[in-house]
């Protein structure tokens, strides 16, 4: 009665939890094995996953969970995109793992009204949102739930036709696999168009850049990413071929760009065109919470080790002034030293 987002994709289930939960070591080993890494005592995975969905989490920060971050880093290094649920505690996702870990695509939940689901975790760690439902009771209509195949038994699964049923559920655990399915579509479309598979970093950049706006924008204190996942837009980018610079957010002279967020250890890229004859170029960030640094370069992408100029003060009040800048396209990268939210970025000359 339903079709998945990427119904033609191959699914490789890897069990890491039991009915009473599980250990970080099991989850880390499962992620490592699924992505093609070596796990002692287990045969190598002959078909490593291009994208892993983890609709799970614990109530502690990622920096308290180094084994998880190590497993994520390993999976990403092998080319596997890691999608995780933000959590259902109506709290800051930074305080949960793996939602607050670096490199993952953290997914918040939206309801049928196009706004943040009342339970969804939020904050700068959340990359984007996807349908997660917003039902509050069993009497809510069908559209307030996310429907998928389940089993009617509470213990040992019961065989069809009696056991398999459609189940309505809500949660960021339902939102995350929507995004994982879109990643599968993106990779398939990219390869079919003659391109290489997208790197995990590029997948994340495309998903962040190509979202639908929220019908009910969440308040600044409860941001759940750049918008709602937009499968057709993301797939179109994959088909056309994409570079990171193509996804840079444009800055307009003297027009502040408010409410920018960035996760710890990650960056957001902007671009700004400078005409000939400019005497002074000013690049600033200010406001919000957290700690960011700025890096700028002309006609090439800056990194934290290669740039024209940088600003790395404590907090979000960063400023750079370039005298008599050459004409060209300038790229500005804002990097989260710590997770930051509601930061304003300004370029002016």
What features would you highlight for this structure?
16 strands; globular; alpha/beta; 4-stranded parallel sheet; 5 helices; 349 residues
Order of helices and strands: HEHEEEEEHHEEHEEEEEEEE
Supply the helix-strand structural class: alpha/beta
Shape: globular
* Count, helices: 5
Q: What percent strand?
A: 25-35%
Low confidence ranges: none
Q: What is the averaged pLDDT score?
A: 95
> How many strands appear in the DSSP assignment?
16
The biggest beta sheet reads: 8 strands, mixed
**Mind telling me the C-alpha Rg?**
21 Å
Helix content range of the residues, please?
Answer: 10-25%
What is the terminal separation in angstroms?
A: 58 Å
Topology:
Elements: H1 24-34, E1 51-54, H2 66-77, E2 81-85, E3 105-110, E4 128-131, E5 146-151, E6 164-169, H3 172-192, H4 200-209, E7 211-212, E8 228-229, H5 231-240, E9 249-250, E10 257-262, E11 267-274, E12 280-286, E13 289-298, E14 309-311, E15 318-323, E16 328-348
Parallel strand pairs: 1-2, 2-3, 3-4, 9-11
Antiparallel strand pairs: 5-6, 7-8, 10-16, 11-16, 12-15, 12-16, 13-14, 13-16
Helix pairs in contact: 1-2, 3-5
């Amino acid at each position: 009665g339903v079709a998945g987002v990427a119904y033609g994709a191959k699914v490789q289930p890897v069990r890491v939890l039991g009915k009473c939960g599980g250990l970080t070591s099991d989850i880390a080993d499962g992620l490592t094995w699924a992505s093609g890494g070596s796990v002692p005592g287990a045969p190598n995975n002959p078909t490593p996953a291009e994208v892993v969905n983890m609709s799970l989490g614990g109530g502690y920060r990622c920096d308290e969970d180094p084994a998880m971050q190590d497993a994520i880093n390993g999976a990403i290094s092998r080319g596997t995109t890691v999608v995780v649920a933000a959590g259902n505690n109506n709290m800051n996702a930074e305080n949960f793992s793996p939602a607050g870990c670096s490199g993952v695509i953290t997914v918040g939940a939206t309801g049928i009204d196009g706004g943040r689901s009342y339970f969804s975790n939020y904050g700068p760690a959340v990359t984007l949102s996807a349908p997660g439902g917003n039902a509050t009771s069993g009497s809510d209509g069908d559209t307030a739930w996310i429907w998928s195949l389940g089993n009617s038994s509470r213990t040992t699964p019961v065989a069809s036709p009696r056991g398999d049923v459609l189940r309505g559920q809500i949660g960021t655990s339902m939102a995350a696999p929507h995004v994982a399915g879109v990643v599968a579509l993106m990779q398939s479309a990219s390869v079919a168009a003659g391109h290489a598979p997208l790197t995990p970093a590029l997948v994340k950049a495309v998903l962040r850049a190509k979202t639908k706006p929220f019908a009910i924008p969440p308040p600044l204190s409860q941001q759940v990413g750049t918008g709602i996942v937009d499968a057709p837009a993301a797939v179109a980018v994959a088909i056309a071929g994409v570079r990171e610079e193509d996804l840079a957010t444009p800055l307009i002279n003297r027009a502040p760009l408010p409410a920018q967020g960035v996760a710890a250890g990650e960056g957001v890229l902007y671009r700004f065109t400078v005409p000939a004859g400019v005497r002074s170029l000013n690049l600033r960030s200010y406001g919000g919470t957290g700690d960011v640094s700025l890096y700028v370069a002309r006609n090439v992408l800056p990194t934290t080790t290669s740039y024209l100029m940088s600003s790395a003060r404590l907090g979000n009040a960063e400023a750079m002034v370039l005298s008599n800048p050459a004409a060209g396209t300038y790229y500005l990268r804002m990097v989260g030293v710590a997770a930051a939210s509601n930061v304003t970025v300004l370029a002016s000359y």
